[in-house]
Design a protein that fits this description.
By secondary structure, this protein is an alpha/beta fold. It has 15 helices and eight strands. Helix 9 runs antiparallel to helix 10 and helix 14 packs antiparallel against helix 15. The radius of gyration is 19 Å and the shape is globular.
């Protein structure tokens, strides 16, 4: 197929190279002209995926029209806070019959929309697939075994996506629960910040396991309220992605939490970072979404107090431990 990948961060670049390896004709759109030049000249994204050789047939451009014109599959992978703008810019160039795949994870702050909803509102009338699951871009780029989920209410679109991306090292499962898959991918980043804070405070493995497990309960509770299938959170886009992001050394969200747990402010942690830790923005969105839906999210709220209300990290975790006692299923 002719494929466009919109967004040339580490994740978009890794997926673009994977598509090229599957013998698709792939054009990667990069906001930064130097990234496009690096991909075309050196077959490497020196800014966001340095040191990783990319498929030699992968081409990049900083002109969105060039990437999207005549594309049969368009993958969106920009940061969540610019997805609406980027999707809107690309809409006029995307053919009506194209399949849209959304690999961005997050919840829009202003409208509390899921990422597939954002794309559907900006690029209307095309089938949309959410691509999510436990997957560090660096490991995918190095062809290490990975399994993820392609979720869509359009079964044919999910199957097309599955076939387009699957390799011997990259296994794609289909799903119909778009809401559950998207919420799992977004909320696990907040939980990763929480476990990073705990690790930065040296609170131990017991605390980390408790945060992961109770974080999963929060994710499931909110997901079910929004119509998700609770079993989705026991799968790759739920517990799979949660465990990876909360424990893996490559997790940007966990690393943000670790530094804050060690005493840094959010401004100090984010200063000079070129890559995005989606969990920071998603903390605000998740808190607002929980309040809108009347769903209790104690870990999300604790992370919010630490990141945005200047509550000392240790106090926030002490408050979590001293909440009213209750049954595990309540």
């Amino acid at each position: 197929m002719r494929c466009a990948v919109v967004g040339a961060g580490a994740w978009g670049t890794a997926l673009a190279s994977l598509l090229a390896e599957n013998e698709h004709e792939v054009t990667l759109w990069a906001y930064e002209p130097d990234v496009a030049e690096s991909v075309n000249t050196d077959h490497e994204n020196r800014r966001f995926l340095d040191g990783v050789p990319l498929h030699p047939m992968l081409r990049a451009t900083s002109v969105i029209e060039t990437a999207c014109t005549d594309a049969e599959l368009v993958l969106f992978a920009p940061p969540s806070h610019v997805l609406r703008q980027v999707a809107g810019q690309s809409a006029r160039w995307i053919p009506e019959g194209a399949t849209l795949v959304v690999a961005t994870k997050g919840i829009e702050r202003e409208r509390l929309a899921l990422m597939t909803d954002v794309v559907a509102q900006e690029v209307r009338g095309r089938p949309i697939v959410a691509l999510s699951g436990p997957s560090f871009a660096l490991e995918v780029a190095h062809h290490l075994p990975t399994a993820i989920v392609a979720a869509s209410t359009d079964a044919d679109a999910a199957l097309r996506t599955q076939k387009a991306f699957s390799t011997s090292a990259f296994r794609v499962y289909t799903q119909r629960d778009v809401v559950g898959v998207e919420l799992g991918g977004a909320l696990k980043n907040v939980m990763a910040v929480a476990t990073g804070i705990s690790d930065g405070l040296a609170l131990g493995f017991n605390a980390r396991a408790a945060l992961i497990t109770r974080g999963l309960a929060e994710m499931t509770r909110l997901g079910v309220k929004l119509g998700a299938d609770p079993s989705t959170f026991a799968g790759l886009a739920g517990i799979g992605d949660l465990v990876l992001t909360c424990t893996g050394s490559l997790s940007r969200n966990r690393s943000v939490g670790v530094e804050i747990g060690r005493g840094a402010t959010l401004q100090e942690v984010l200063h000079g970072r070129e890559t995005v830790a989606e969990g920071v923005a998603t903390t605000e969105s998740a808190k607002a979404l929980g309040e809108r839906e009347g769903v209790e999210l104690p870990i999300v709220n604790a992370v919010h107090r630490v990141l945005f209300e200047r509550q000392p990290a240790r106090w926030a975790l002490v408050e979590l431990m001293n909440r009213d006692l209750k049954g595990e299923g309540e």
